[in-house]
Amino acid sequence: MAGHWLLARLGKRVLRPGGRELTERMLDAAMITDSDIVELAPGLGRTAQEIIRRGPRSYRGIDTDPAAVEHTNRRLGGAGTVTQADAANTGLPDASADIVFGEAMLTMQSDRAKLEMMTEAFRILKPGGRYVIHELGLTPDGLDDATKQEIQRALAKSIKVNARPLTSEEWRALLTRAGFTVREDTRFAPMRLLQPRRIIADEGISGALRFARNLMSMPEERSRVLGMRRTFHEHQKALTAVGIVAEKPR
Ligand SMILES: C[S@@+](CC[C@H](N)C(=O)[O-])C[C@H]1O[C@@H](n2cnc3c(N)ncnc32)[C@H](O)[C@@H]1O
User: Where is the Methyltransferase type domain (predicted)?
Assistant: First the structure.
């Protein structure tokens, strides 16, 4: 089972590297109010609920996972709609969104698939629209290839997903290739997904306690989570959460 679904099974709801804090900063930068917004890969719908709280004109989500689609549609109770589709081929009309928002979903794709998804975001955005991403990054920009490959291998082994984080310069270059103008102010947050303080900040005290209780009672899952935490810790100097705002030129 992929690491994010393992964490979800244990009760974790926030499944992105910079946690809720970076999400809030990216939502502020996106300027949601009165906009038509598409969220790519809403997963368990925590950000979807936050977006709806901010009063968009409309909310549409796209996720490949049928259980996530059902779960989030239930949580939204009609305030928005999530459809099962691939982010590279959403089926949404051209130029129909003011904002496309996506968290922790490009990282797990090959560079080619990342570009296809960015190109799809470009297609569905209106001219002047914003594409906002929150993904796993590598630092510094000049990180050598051998270290990058070692990190990719370690992540693949522990998360069981071919995670391919990029440096902020590489994320920006790919967005530019897809046609976007990338804003200068990249935002960063430490990659602390599995550190106790971040878990409490993301899930609240009762969510963190539920997660801890589940960990105690599920030994196999616990050993996998500890393995993921070890990997993140071992590579913490080179791992970071990255938030970028890109614009479709008018
Ligand atoms: C790590 S979770 C992140 C979920 C959520 N964005 C969050 O930050 O909590 C990755 C999500 O990406 C979705 N996903 C993976 N590949 C996808 C694709 N090709 N198109 C759309 N969604 C995809 C998964 O189903 C899952 O919901």
Answer: 39-133
